[in-house]
Batch of 3 targets.
Target 1
Amino acid sequence: MNVMESAAMGVKTRLNVNTIVKGQSVTKTFADGSVVALSGADFEIEKGSFVSLVGPSGCGKSTLLRLISGLIEPSSGSVNVKGENVVGPRDDVGLMFQKATLLEWRTALENVLLPTEVKRKITHDDEKRAYDLLKLVGLEDFVFSFPAQLSGGMQQRVALARLLQTGADILLLDEPFGALDEFTRERLNIELMRIVTEIEATTIFVTHNISEAIFLSDKVVVMTPRPGKIASVVEVPLERPRSPKMQTSVEFNKLVEHVRDLLGEF
Amino acid sequence: MVLGFRAFQGKHTKRIISHALIFIALLICWESASNFGLLDEYLYPKPSGIFHSFWVIYVKNASIWHHLWVTIGLVLLGFVGGSIAGVSLGSLVGFNPTMRRFLQPYIIVIEATPRIAVAPLLIAALGFGIQSKVAIIILVCFFAPFINTLSGVINVGNDKLELFKSLGATKRQILVKLVFPEALPTIMAGERLAMTAALSGALVAEFIQRDQGLGSLILLYSRNLNMSSAFACIFTLTVLGFFIFKGMEILDRRIAFWTYEAGRIQRSNKKARKTLNLLEVGHG
Ligand SMILES: Nc1ncnc2c1ncn2[C@@H]1O[C@H](COP(=O)(O)OP(=O)(O)OP(=O)(O)O)[C@@H](O)[C@H]1O
Ligand SMILES: [Mg+2]
């Protein structure tokens, strides 16, 4: 780890009013401690920022997201959201998986309404909001389609609309478009960036793809496996809004190379 | 361990016509074979004789109706009983891992034993009468709903469970909004098998207790060597079986509609018609 990055990480030990998610020596083991999925992770995520987690398979990216979402509890250390210890799923934290995970017996609209339905009785306004979200992700012609009638990319967009319907302002996305083709993925990524900026959400985004991580993020968290840990955090000083053309710039490619080197060291 | 089938896709008029022609040809062959003495008329009655018997038992003295209703009633009673037993036991075992581990060997034993073999014991225990008949049917038709409910309930996707948990859903909501609908197509496949089994079970019950019903009627006619009437009963059962099969298929298409292309399209259009105007208000 070079000096600059250590310094950047050092900042995080100070109290930061803008911090919305915070982890302190978070460790998660499985199988009675024999598998260390995440080891002593310290992190702070700034409100409204877009942070990517990159790293090889098995380095604990999904585990970290599941810890923040409250689906699992750390074996030791603590995770804080808005200053509160995370003890279970929270309304202000939304999670989206690699697979769309839609309910096959519900239309796109009904799938998007699920998060609200779990909380309270659906109102007409809820339906309208869900409808608007489907429009937002470009599915106005498929509002009443069942998942089996949608392509993989469309299903993923329904899942994105469902995530937004939760009203959460902290969005956790675990390789959300990983199973899609390059074109669709890029389109959805740009759409996602636009939406999260608009709703001022804090986004934590897991990916295998270094360019994708840099293109989207304010910060890229580089993770390494066995045991899974946070190796370094790379700031992305590219200006916003970002356009796909930026990916050919010298600055962008230097960052890609830098992250690749960091990953290659391990 | 999921049991199921999908059959009888689309009808084609052409196919029906050719089948009808072949069938008529077959009847003519059968009739002439009897007329020329190639078939023993006592054991293999002529089609014309069977048609005559149909006329006699359905219209002339209308003796079959009572038995037909008795059998249908018995099938429905047993089917409902077997389904309730199967689905509730299956859910119970499915939701309770400890119970599942404990019951696993017994389930295998029950699966390996032909359930019908226990029928005489049931009569010994419950005596002659409708109660033992229904018990026999429940016995033969409970297993498919049981095993399918069990596997439907335990095979709910982990990712879907996580989704519900991350949304903060209660146990009850997970059950009603996820586990039950997810298991429904599998349960329905079990129910279709159960219905077919119920009909066979009813006949066996009526063979054993020959007081009334189509089974006892077939037995009676065969003993009296009134084969054409026996055949009329058997063909009645064919038609009954067909309607039961079709009825279950229609039910399946309605209940587990999303597993059928046509069902999805139909529902999707219906919902669009019903809701779209409401949603468009204020959106120009
Ligand atoms: N529920 C679990 N039980 C046992 N081991 C687990 C469990 N979940 C994760 N692990 C282990 O923890 C480690 C990290 O898993 P995790 O899913 O977080 O990796 P990942 O970085 O998301 O990988 P990928 O990029 O392949 O999705 C792996 O070695 C995995 O085998
Ligand atoms: Mg993962």
Target 2
Amino acid sequence: MSDGFDVDRIYEVFARQKREDRLEHVGAITAPNASLARVYAWQTYDEATWFEMVVAPRDSFEAVNREEAPFTLEPREEGAAT
Amino acid sequence: MPEMTAEDRELQEKVHDGFLVESEADMTENYKQALITQLLVQGDTELISAPAYFMAARDAPTTNTMVSATAIIQDELGHANIAYRLLEDLGVDRHWILYEREPHEFKHPYGFDQPLENWAELVVANGFYDRAGITLLGDVHRNTSYGPLKRALVKVDLEENFHLRHGEVWMKRLSTSGPEAREKLQDAVDWMFPMGVEWFGMPDDKKRHTTQLDFKLKGMSNDELRQTWLQAVVPLCDELGLDVPARVDEESGEVELTYDFPVQYDPEEKKWLFDEPISWDEVWDRWRERGPMNEEYVNSVRRSRFEIEEMLAA
Ligand SMILES: [Fe+2]
Ligand SMILES: [Fe+2]
């Protein structure tokens, strides 16, 4: 994974509070590389003392049972600002 | 209000029956635009609370209190980030949100265009404005038909309650700390209480029907939300012996304002002109004109980005 600063990617954030817990989806952040994604995730989702937190780029998720899984969806159009 | 199509009405029925919208594919254009507006208000309010709180945090009485104030500011930036992240999924460009809008185009309430100048004003902001935030976002959390927002608000609610507690504990503390602290606290309450009343917008008899309610992007009307806030804030002030222009009806528990809402505000003097009732058109004019700190707050959260860009370009 490159550590460049060129393109922002969306990273999904997963965490668990205790060793025996499942990883849970806690949110997402946007970052230009994986190192910053880790920092942003840790700083943003600091509501609990996590046993473990991991991040993965949204575009690395493979839909299994449906074509339009939430993690794989792209916005319909660019710059739909009001 | 936008014209509703047959698809809009179908979606409105579905969400009122409990359907959760999970992605753009589930939305109509009108739903999407209403959600974008709501998330911009939410994100901008969180974002601008940060420099507003920072201005007052510099007056923190001790290192420890500075630390708790800074923790709150960091939470708020995180909350803004979460709202803006959700907007990106709707195709709204993050760079546009943060860097391409004029300060007056940000959608935070007029109350966050005002200078917070001392510790008393910071803790009243936590007690009043974070309470307003909890009232509004708690309602969204319980009722929103947009699944990703509902889930994101779990964390936000948790942290807002910490901010509120910070405010209420300190208001109590200042109210029992001798005449000078009491006076500062009352001064803060005097201009910040009516600011909180205005936070919830137009009364229902002026604007009853909203797209947000139709699409279940929230559950309560402006007046219901305002009343919820009043029923938390006014008893607290009564308990602390602080004067507010409102009273609790003993029988119904409802809170009634004892001034002619809405009234004009003088931002230079930080004074409400209670003998100058105005129309809602005039309130809108004042909001649109923005308050004294509007530009400075907006620029302060994006100044360093431009400085870094210049450095990188040099
Ligand atoms: Fe917040
Ligand atoms: Fe807050």
Target 3
Amino acid sequence: MADKKHALISLTRVTKAYGSNEARIFALRGIDLSIESGEFISVMGPSGSGKSTCMNILGCLDTPTSGQYKFGGVEVSHMSRKQLATLRRFYLGFVFQGFNLLNRTTAMENVELPLVYRGMPPKKRKALARKALEQVGLAGREAHTPGELSGGQQQRVAIARAIATTPSVLFADEPTGNLDTAKSHEIMELLKQLNQEQKITVVMVTHESDMAAYSDRIIHFVDGQVADVENGQTPTAKGGQDR
Amino acid sequence: MIRNTFILAFRGIRRNVMRSVLTILGIIIGVAAVITLVTIGNGTTAQVTQQIAAMGTNVLLISPGQRHGPGGAAGAPNFSVKDVQAIEQQINDLAGVAPAVSASAVAVAGNQNWSTSITGTTNDFFTVRNWTIKAGRTFSQNEINAGRTVCVVGDTIRVNLFGDTDPVGQKLRLGRVSCQIVGLLEAKGNSSMGRDQDDCVIMPMKAVQRRFSGNKDIPFIQVAVKSDASTTTASAAIQSLLRKRRHIADNEEDNFRIMDTKELATMLTSTTKTMTALLGAVAAVSLLVGGIGIMNIMLVSVTERTREIGIRLAIGAYEHEVLLQFLVESVVLSSFGGIFGIILALAASFGGTKMLGIPFAPDISIIIIAFFFSAAVGVVFGYFPALKAARMDPIDALRHE
Ligand SMILES: Nc1ncnc2c1ncn2[C@@H]1O[C@H](COP(=O)(O)OP(=O)(O)OP(=O)(O)O)[C@@H](O)[C@H]1O
Ligand SMILES: [Mg+2]
């Protein structure tokens, strides 16, 4: 999908407004952003600065009020609903800030779901789902439903669901928000590994600079705008590539 | 893709056990109630129609007493053989005139006994009552004229006194009167009033008058009018004849009654029609209640389902896949409920009709209507909220509250 001439993802003067008339507030006030294929990006910023709003737009779940969003050089607003669904199905993975798992559905079935929509045969998708749950440290919890899992465990199911498909781009909205430090680092190692070995582009929102340190670049949001972009350092030797 | 849709639909049903069970229950109640009530209503109508046909629609029942009110025979004289002859000779278009004298006695055959009623009449009785002889014969002219103690028995008498042996030619003792059985009547079943019509012994009138009632009075005359003639005309003619014969002045009321079975039939039919309509109304209400139940269940879960659809869309489901899944889910639940409801209704109405002793006559069109109405309710309320949600942006569906 990614064409060498274009950045994988590019936002130009993207705004997002909620409400109408007097009650209208801008969650995004003109975002310019370009992400290359294979990058590991962190997004940081105070609460309410528009990080989730931006991630939803990047994940093709929401549409910007104005501005351009190009994915692989193609203007997203020109795509049909079905094309967007295809994009989400085959190229994107999304970890929601609020998990968004199906209730009363086992971890296994939750993780399997995107693979079902990809039309994968049962044996293969079960194997992949099991592997993804193992990777996030939930082996043995396959048959548990979200109601039977802790917040952190639910969050890891949500991560497993997003990585089981090996997407081209993984959008993760605070993927370690409910995890302890040790678990957070494990997850970051996993994302880093997927980024390096599977060439998955990762865009992650985080509040912790420890986690942001795993990434190649950190984008700081303030009040719906990109305030600053810095290059991160990797805490371990095997860390990120320079760009 | 179709396979996956079915997998997802069944997972949906399994996940929402309560919702699924309640939906099925709503449909079962609706379908079963409608089919059961209508089937029982139809059975009743069919039975009444059968009984009217069995009674013969062109029959006039003549008895002494006031025309209106429950007075009965008090003070009013009975009829005589001359009255019967006068009707036979002077009234046109009659198929038969059967006088009837009744008595009751304990019938004994072998070591069995059975308390029954005896009717003394002529062979016209069989014509008027539209009753055929199953075995043996009717009375001979000689037996009628001489008042011989011979009899034709109803099927209940055979069952209770003779079992499987042929009663024709056997002896039957009625009280102290010994009597020869010459014929057996076809079984007729219960009358519309619930009386066992087959529990009877028919004898020549003179025999009953002589051996049982001890006088020559005739308390009851049944007249059959030819099928192409008017019962109203015949009734009026008999009325004026009897008034003359009983010396009733112009300003006096009749001291006898003529009841037209056609009137009776109309009355009974309209009663059963009213009943069926009433049952139908009750059934419609239960269908509606079932439908509202389903609607409630579906509306309560709209938020959850909208969010669920948001999740599916977000991880790459196509709109049509989500819709198909929910359609399959509702169709499966609705048809399951519908089929279960039909089975339940057939069982219940079979039991009900057996208990009421009416014919079991299920109506295929009402079964189809009830099934499709309920299925439609299930599908509409299961599908439309899904349709709305599947058309939203994923994020809007996810945020739905
Ligand atoms: N659906 C919505 N309707 C109205 N306002 C909204 C909606 N979603 C977000 N907002 C507003 O947009 C702004 C940005 O919200 P967003 O969720 O993007 O913040 P965030 O940076 O992800 O914050 P956090 O770190 O707390 O998750 C907030 O002021 C929020 O109130
Ligand atoms: Mg957020």
